[in-house]
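Section 3.1: Structural characterization of target chains.
Under the original work plan, the team committed to producing a structural model for every single-chain target entering the pipeline before any wet-lab resources were allocated. The record below documents one such target. The sequence was received from the expression subgroup and is listed exactly as submitted; it comprises 306 residues.
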Amino acid sequence: MKYLRSVRGRMLCIAFVPGGALVLVALVIAFFLVQQADRTRDAGVETANAADRTARAVVALRTQRSEAMSVPGRRSAAYANFTRRIDTAIDGLRDYARHAPDAESAYQQMTAVELLSAAEGMYRSDSLALAGLDDVTRPSFAEAVAGYRTGLARIAPQLTDSGRTAYESLTRSADWTTLTAAEDALAAGRPLPVPESTWRSAAYTVSQQLGFLYTQQNQYAVQLTLDEGRRTLTGALAASAALLLGAALLLVVVRRLVARVPVPVVPIMVPTMRAAIPRPRHAASRRPRAPEPWPMKAVLDDLRRR
């Protein structure tokens, strides 16, 4: 059997092995990065769905709370019951924000959740005021008013530029001034400084603006998560393409360099049958021979002549 051993072939094999390994690494990296991008995108979609479910649940619970608090004698119990259920729903959304795929998305989602919680504080105080304040519910009303105002002031610097602009426009509006004046009077037990219809109109406008702020912030946070997923996917594809291109260029360059090396192909004959191998001369064993008779005969003849 004949085998051809080529130096060029060996050089190509040496180049193809790391090139193939580089291609394999590129495929593995692309697989994991694509998986990460899919998880990020799924997290954004799930957060958006959770925010929508939570907002719908909070709105429904607010309506039920207002209806339950309209029954005399059950105001405190209804307020405590539905407020606790709303807090539980908001806490569930807060858990989604904590498990965001990156720090920036988590920060923006948490800001949206805190904004929803502050808006809920405004609705709490409004529901207490509509049900009628007494010595039992007035402290809860004052606490709710102070809580949502403090929460909004704390969250405002964390909003986006458009969010801060909308918040500043809200706090400088006539409706905000009317609402705060009415709330201060109710908390102190004084008569309303404005007609009730004006107060209710201002409360409705402020609640709508707070809802708009939450929706805007939540959409921004969700979009940020989705954009992060797209960036991760784009980076995965770009990195994989770069690695594959590098491997291809490496193989092409090595192939061209090897083609320029003047190394002939040397055939090597490998015997297929077992042949006798000649032994070196010095290794050949010599048998002892008998002495030749002619030297002795010559000596005897010489002695006789003497």
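DSSP finds eight helices and two strands in the chain.
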